[in-house]
Specification:
The structure is a single chain. The chain is of the alpha+beta class. Helices cover about 35% and strands about 20% of the residues. It has five helices and six strands, in the order αααββαβαβββ. Strands 1, 2, 3, 4, 5 and 6 form a six-stranded mixed sheet that branches. The protein is elongated and about 85 Å long. The mean pLDDT is about 85.
């Protein structure tokens, strides 16, 4: 009986050692692949040149992410003076990403913005609500999505994200692109 318990303990230790070894290997693969996807930096990993993770993961992590410096879209219903979209998608209103409502609105906004010529976007730095209230729609767009949620006089803003180093500064006004359109929805 003692011998059986002894072998059970040995098997448990062996299984634990194998699990930890496999987990450590996968952690190293993750760290090396993530490091090769980052821009040049002063940190160097041991055997970085020999491991050459770029040949294992040629696409890197770019497939899963968007450019962090790309412009963010903000969409406002001018009549209600509220956001016209249910973003971000990971909010309780969107069931932390389970609901497709917010994601569908992203496609809807993309289709609306596609119809707006670059010349109709203005560079602006003041209060956006002052702009929205004093500006007539530059054009009328038909929202042809099957279950349209963005309709009426809509204010659109494209703004670059605030650089992390400036995140705590007060009274910093960043220029942004802004326009007002009238969106007509077909009845469903």
């Amino acid at each position: 009986m003692k011998d059986l318990k002894k072998w059970e303990n040995v098997n448990l230790y062996l299984l634990s050692a194998v699990f930890l070894s496999v987990a450590l290997i996968w952690l190293l693969v993750f760290v090396y692949s993530l490091h090769q996807a980052l821009p040049y930096n002063p940190l160097k990993l041991p055997f970085e040149k020999k491991v050459n993770t770029i040949s294992w993961f040629p696409q890197g992590w770019g497939f899963f992410t968007k450019d962090p410096r790309s412009e963010d879209d903000y969409v406002y219903d001018i009549q209600t003076k509220a956001e016209a979209v249910a973003w971000p998608n990971n909010t309780p209103e969107n069931l932390f990403g389970i609901s497709r409502y917010g994601r569908a609105q992203g496609i809807e906004v993309g289709l609306i913005e596609y119809e707006i010529p670059k010349s109709d976007w203005e560079n602006y730095q003041g209060n956006m609500w002052t702009y929205f209230n004093n500006k007539s729609p530059v054009l009328t767009i038909n929202n042809t999505t099957p279950h349209a949620t963005i309709c009426g006089k809509i204010g659109l803003v494209k703004k670059e994200p605030t650089v992390w180093a400036w995140s705590k500064l007060k009274n910093v006004k960043h220029p942004y692109k802004i326009t007002v359109v009238n969106v007509k929805c077909s009845k469903n």
